[in-house]
Amino acid sequence: MATSLQEIRARLQQQSDRSSGNVQVGDYAIYAHWNIPENTVSRVRFLPDADPKNTFFWIERAMIRLPFNGIEGQSDSKPTTVTVPCVEMWGQPCPILAEVRTWFKDKSLEEMGRKYWKKKSYLFQGFVRENPLADDKIPENPIRRFVISSQIFNLIKNALMDTELENLPTDYDAGLDFNIKKISKAGYADYNTSTWARKESALTQAERDAIEKYGLFNLQDFLPKRPDDTELAIMKEMFEASVNGELYQPKWASYFKPLGYQTNSSSGSSAAHTSTDTDDETYEKPAAVKPAPRVVAKPAPEPVHEDDDEPPFEVQPAATSAKSSSQRAEDILAMIRNRQKQ
Question: What domains, with CATH codes, occur in the chain?
């Protein structure tokens, strides 16, 4: 039940945004670390996920880009890309990757396989403690969200595997900052010199007050909408058309569409996933609006910052006796938590 006029207006605006397929402007919660100048450092402090069921303080997203040479019916259309969610995020078999996995058995198809392989990114939240972005639009709520690439994530994860780590990096009193360092390598942005801080530090009173006032984000809320059976069939159809070099079909716009695509029909548009040519994420909020002590604005998509996703090594199933890196990281985090309780 709405408790104020402000909340009523916010909910009505959210409904309007979903119905029109528009992206709400003015939410700067996502910190664009990929825009920091070269040879600068952005110091951030990660915070826990609001979801107590999430072992980690991040959540993984996997998206698949489907490129098209243009849009059918538009004589002046340019190459465009539609981004769809890989349902392996929810432990469900992905109909697209089921096909793409077989391509890696043939060396001549490997390049094509990488083109359609899922692109991973990781959602974190926290404070920006040192900010080299001169034009950064700082929101009222200082708790920001971070879209972290595989390159940076591997640095974060590898440090967690160090058994000498005494405290969780997200600990309010003895946590660690993370320094995102951007340099240039072969003409591309490189973050491999990013590191955890050497010294522990406590959250400031202002940071604690912000957590108390605004609360932590439930990162699960910022995953794209989970496709249903109909949408999965559309994804497979689009994938096959993309591989065959066909144009994007307007009939798919009720389900998945490129950013900026306009349609005269509003039928089904409220369920459509909106993609962008410059981004591998779709920031679709869940269809249901969950009651919450605060209203979270719908985030705008950020420009693509890098594409360094790891090769699809999982083409060959791992041996059942070997623990995955994710499981090992979970064991380390559990060990640290046990230490803190002692």
Answer: 5-341 (3.90.198.10)
The whole-chain average pLDDT of the chain stands at: 79
What is residue 260's predicted lDDT score, i.e. its pLDDT?
Answer: 73
Q: Check: CB of residue 47 under 8 Å from CB of residue 34.
A: no
The predicted-structure confidence for 13-38, as pLDDT tens digits, reads as follows 555 554 443 433 346 899 999 999 99
The CA-to-CA distance between both ends of the chain, in Å, stands at 42
DSSP 319-335: PTTSPPHHHHHHHHHHH
Let me know: does 219 contact 147? Beta carbons within 8 Å: no
**Token pair in block for residue 92:** 């469900």
CA distance linking residue 89 with residue 222, whole number of Å: 12
DSSP state for residue 167 in the 8-state scheme: S
Q: What pLDDT, on a 0 to 100 scale, did the predictor assign at position 269?
A: 41
CA–CA distance from 28 to each of 32, 66, 136, 137, 205 (Å)? 9, 27, 8, 6, 23
- Per-residue tokens: 200: 């522990």
**Which amino acid is residue 59, in one-letter code?**
I
What is d(CA 161, CA 149) in angstroms, rounded to the nearest whole number?
19
Taking the mean position of all CA atoms in its chain, how far away is CA 235? 19
Distance of CA 309 to the CA centre of its chain: 13
- For 5, the enclosing helix (H) or strand (E) is helix 5-20
Contact (CB, 8 A) for 47 and 216? yes
Report how far residue 120's alpha carbon sits from residue 98's, in angstroms, rounded to the nearest whole number.
17
Q: With a cut of 70, which residues of the chain have pLDDT below it? A: 1-27, 263-342
> pTM of this prediction?
0.72
Q: What is the pLDDT of residue 186?
A: 86
Q: What is the pLDDT of residue 263?
A: 61
- Please give the C-alpha separations between residue 77 and each of 73, 84, 274, 321, in angstroms, as whole numbers: 9, 21, 17, 51
Q: In Å, what is the CA distance from 250 to each residue of 95, 108, 240, 244, 321? A: 22, 32, 16, 17, 48
> Given CA atoms 134, 138, 144, 147 in this order, what sign does their dihedral have?
negative
The Cα–Cα gap between 64 and 235 comes to 10
